[in-house]
Amino acid sequence: MAERILIIEDESAIADALVYVLGTEGFEVQWCGLAGDGLKAVQEHPPALVILDVGLPDQSGFELCRQLRTFSDVPVIFLTARKEEIDRIVGLEIGADDYVVKPFSPREMAARVKAILRRSRATVLLTTEPATATPFQLDEQRKRICYHGVWLDLTRYEYLILSTLLRRPQHVLSRAQLMDAVWDDPGASFDRAVDTHIKGIRAKLNRIAPGEDPIRTHRGLGYSLEMQAAGVRR
Ligand code: CA
Questions:
Q1: How far is the CA of 81 from the centre of ligand 1 (A)?
Q2: If you measure from the C-alpha of residue 55 to the centroid of ligand 1, how many angstroms do you get, rounded to a whole number?
Q3: Domain 4-121 class in CATH
Q4: Which of 35, 87, 91, 211 is least enclosed by beta carbons within 10 angstroms?
Q5: 7 membership: H or E segment, kind and range
Q6: Residue 141 pLDDT
Q7: Which of 30-44, 135-149, 188-202 has the highest mean pLDDT?
Q8: How remote is the CA of residue 14 from the centroid of ligand 1, in Å?
Q9: What residue spans define the domains of the chain?
């Protein structure tokens, strides 16, 4: 079955060129001109990859990408026209997989799409490897975490909190440290939000390995991950 690419781009000339070239490469292509329609499309019918314009009429591509990352790990390639935007894509952890600067060659875009899909298929194959001694595997490239051989279905914040704990197993991290590590604007959140996300992560871990509960609460201090060795796959 053909892999489906979703293009979210308001300039029809650019979208037409992409629809054409990706179609000739054997992809099924869907095009939305608005961020709102793109969000709905990803929710209703998850694509294999999203090509996302930064400048959309109803919302910025950055905002849309953040929203997508709360529920989806779909690879995203940004389309951008300006140097300042590249700095944001590269400098901030928005969750993009690649970017292409306008004007661009549709053939080059098709090559990038294929490269990223190859990469994400390779990541999926890792899940079939036999379980190792450590129950966690952190896939930083694709921003997901494997627990006892099962990919966790984490929200973006849950992923960021758990990966922060995984990078420093046996260390107590305070709520403030966890917030600083994960929030774009730490001032906007409260300790209770960390507790809520930890609760969500625990529930998901417990579904896979009931009663194991590797996250320890240190009253008045914070949280730690009690694992001998957390596997980090880069
Ligand atoms: Ca645009």
A1: 8
A2: 4
A3: alpha beta
A4: 211
A5: strand 4-8
A6: 82
A7: 30-44
A8: 9
A9: 4-121, 131-225
